[in-house]
Design goal:
This protein is α/β, with parallel strands linked by helices. The protein contains six helices and ten strands. It has a six-stranded antiparallel beta sheet with strand order 4-3-6-1-2-5, covered by helices on one side. The longest helix has 14 residues. It binds flavin-adenine dinucleotide (FAD). Flavin-adenine dinucleotide (FAD) binds next to β4, β5 and α1.
């Protein structure tokens, strides 16, 4: 395997594409030149640190990679934060061919190093995301579905409304393309009648209390296509505070 050079060094990369995701978010894509391909290898879940001069000041911020492994380019997704310096600049001003300083991928919230190996399969990954927290999970979902033959993924994704949901179309396409492998359980906190229960459910999930609210009956009531878990599937939690044992208790109670 080729060795990475200095991983904490910035490199100038050109923005090759800017795609609007919602009214207040964009996906930025960088082409990685041949000589930097090894430095910019990543494990799904990792992030890039970007640096740029904004109004005469050097501003650096981290953004998770949302593209899958194995693509020629790397993408990140940025959502505006109220009065936030970098995010507003990125969403409103950045365009094709602009250059940014970018540090190679880092971060420990990522798939296990051996995620591609046969001995880790079949596995069912369970992820929980709210708003722009979807970005690292997006890379995991696409990588697992396209690079393994058997991995399943269940995503609980909370947003204010369907319109504010980042990657809405991509997720819809993945649901259609990977039937019985990808399950999306969306929550819309502004529009759903049972929003109190939804807030409670998400709060429980985020705190690592995956218990009664996420029973299989509750899942069935939320989605027309409840996940089919096979006993042979290993359940893997992608939320640090939720251990694999809690998932087993919740999902296998039938
Ligand atoms: C590992 C990691 C991965 C991330 N991945 C993503 C991602 O994929 N997508 C994404 O959108 N974001 C991501 N983030 C968040 C991102 O790094 C930025 O924090 C976010 O975009 C806000 O940056 P900003 O410059 O726009 O806001 P900032 O300018 O940093 O401001 C943030 C907030 O603080 C307020 N504020 C700033 N200065 C002051 C002050 N002096 N007094 C009072 N209030 C103040 C601002 O009004 C604003 O509401 C990630 C963060 C980390 C650590």
């Amino acid at each position: 395997m080729l060795k990475k050079s200095h991983t904490n060094q910035y490199h100038r990369l050109a923005v090759s594409d800017v795609n609007g995701l919602t009214d207040d978010s964009v996906m930025l894509t960088f082409d990685i030149p041949e000589h930097l391909k090894t430095d910019f290898q990543f494990v799904p879940g990792q992030y890039l640190t970007l640096r740029h001069q904004i109004q005469g000041r050097s501003v650096s911020r981290c953004y998770s990679i949302c593209s899958p492994v194995g693509e020629e380019s790397l993408s990140i997704a940025i959502r505006k934060v109220h009065k936030g310096q970098f995010s507003n600049y990125a969403v409103d001003e950045l365009s094709h061919r602009d250059q940014l300083e970018v540090m190679p991928p880092m971060g420990h919230f990522k798939l296990d190093e051996g995620w591609l190996e046969e001995r880790h399969q079949p596995a069912c990954y369970v992820g929980v995301a709210g708003g722009s927290g979807i970005t690292p999970i997006m890379s995991m979902i696409k990588s697992l579905l396209t690079k393994t033959a058997s991995a399943q993924f269940v995503l609980f994704y909370s947003n204010r409304s369907e319109q504010s949901m980042m990657f809405r179309e991509t997720l819809g396409r993945l649901v259609d393309q990977f039937r019985h492998r990808f399950y999306l359980v969306p929550f819309f906190t502004e529009t759903q009648d049972d929003s109190e229960l939804i807030h409670h459910t998400i709060a429980c999930a985020l705190k690592g209390k995956f218990d009664t609210e996420l029973s299989s009956e509750y899942l069935s009531s939320l989605t027309s296509r409840p996940p089919r878990f096979k006993n042979r599937h290993r359940l893997v939690s992608l939320w640090p505070s939720v251990d694999d044992g809690s998932l087993e208790n919740c999902f296998r109670r039938e």
